[in-house]
Amino acid sequence: MALSEFFLFPLGLVALLGAVPLVILYLLRPEPVRRTLPTFRFLADAAGRSASNPIFDRLLRSLLLLIQLLALVALVGSLATPYVLVPESETVQETVLVVDTSASMGVRDGGGTRFDSALAAARDEVSGTTSVVAAGANADVVLRRGSATDARAALDGLQASDAPGDLRSAITAAASVAGEDARVVVLSDFADDSPWSDAVREARARGLVVQLRQFAGGGQGNVGIVDRRFSGTNVTVTVKNYGDSAVTRTLSLAGTAREVRMDPGDVATATLPVPAGGGRVALSPGDAFPPDDALYVAAPEDASVDVLVLTNDENRYLTAALSVIPEVSLTVDNPPTAVSPNYDVVIYSNVNPGRLLAGNVEAGREIVADGGGVAIQAQEESPNYGDLRLVSQGSVETNPTIGTVESHPITRDITFPPPTEYIAGDLRAGQSLVNTTGGTSLVAVERRGAGRVLYYGFMEDSSAFKYNYQYPVFWKRSVFYLAGRSTLSELNRATGGSLATGANQTVETPAGETTGPEVRLGDAGFYRVGDERFAASLLSEAESDVAAAPLDGESAPADYPTRVEEREVPDPLTEWAALVALAATMVELAYLRRRGDL
């Protein structure tokens, strides 16, 4: 039986150790000296015991010791707080607060923002039992049925993001968190284009009281960046005028500026060159909604990808596909030749085995070791590429069928037609991305240290893939993969999404450092993962349309719902234990006085 079933603070019983010295004192007390008095000799005959009696008989005979032990036990018991369980009824008012943290809540309104006003109102709605749901890109239950103090602390930790919101999901989450007879208070500008009203009707159909508080001041006539598109080393920015009058705005990036003029509701575009390392596109003059007045652009520090094609029979389809990539600086050379390791990518295509020097292959290994890449194209008579070749050289086979195509940045959404002839072989290293039904890999890749290796098993004379519009796309992706570069589209994201990183990978965000494996893009700005920098910007026409129609027919209910909870609570008996200790002390004093010690 646990002591906690009887005492609120069982540790206080440790003070009972104070009884030990008291008992020892009584045991060690010297026995009184006996004197024989002749006039009272008859008393000696009646005495039945002496100092040789058992110790416990002495203790039992000592009334004073028993009284003192009783007082000590009662005092220690009061310190341990004895209790009994008694039934109690409590009236509970439960509130679930849904606070909109989407980008549109950052509209400046007077001396603050919409979010500031909503947060202040939310604090006034806190009740004894409160849950808090943040309505951002995801519905986050920040607090589940906490106290008023916990609720205010949770509200203090909320911040408006630069991402679109999903108010419907947040209201649905609030309804699932709410208990019986709870009320849900939604604090938002209601500029969200999600069907949040459906979630409100569903919650009310469950019997929940749903109160809507709107904060939609400011933001009239907003003009903002709503989209962007990359082409080569340029970015085309799209701007929309949500106001009711014509406006002129200037877009600027790294010293280059473009002016756009828009009538009410118009959309305009401007193309700007992206500098090495990227930058920030500014829309000026700004307005009451800053998140869509800026576009963050991330770009590699070295925009050029230096590619060398080593060939003795130039593949015109390959070189043409590479030459139209703006970021590629292409060089075509014929073995035997000296190869500099200063290239980012080297591609071996249609090479005469007798003319390829051992130094040409070693140069490829050095490029891989330095973080670059090597691609080898299949041919009937292949030179000895050593460990650079991922698929062994076998016999020439005909009319294969394409089996599986793995999901990979190189092959995503690309349809590969089967070749008429191919080199059969086994995968020696790496990952196969495109396979025949017979098991031969037609496209394989391997990360090798800081570099990468690719095997391309389509022989151009026996493949129709070179005529496919996706052929240049494949080689652009392959070159960027081999060079360890991300395209501008991959480096630049919209807020509200996420960035996949390695496990425990440290990521620098606009709000400070965090760790992977996945980081939410809630704030606009730059994110650095290792040596690579990404950018996130608000790109949402719905979120930039900050004007919201006023809510009709919504008012606060006169009486908020409550419920009565029955539960058992401890009733401390401390005062009774203290009274017993006091009574024992009074008895002790009375006994000492009667005995003549006082």
TrEMBL record:
Where in the numbering of this chain does the DUF7408 domain appear? Answer: 306-477
Q: Where is the DUF7406 domain?
A: 485-536
* Keyword list, A-Z: Membrane, Transmembrane, Transmembrane helix
Where is each VWFA domain found? 95-190
Membrane-traversing stretches: 6-28, 63-85
Q: One matching Pfam family, short form?
A: DUF7407
DUF7407 domain: residues covered: 223-296
The signal peptide stretch is none
- Enumerate the Gene3D superfamilies for this protein: 3.40.50.880, von Willebrand factor, type A domain
Q: Which residues form the Aerotolerance regulator N-terminal domain?
A: 7-82
Q: What is this protein called?
A: BatA and WFA domain-containing protein
Q: State the organism of origin.
A: Haloferax chudinovii
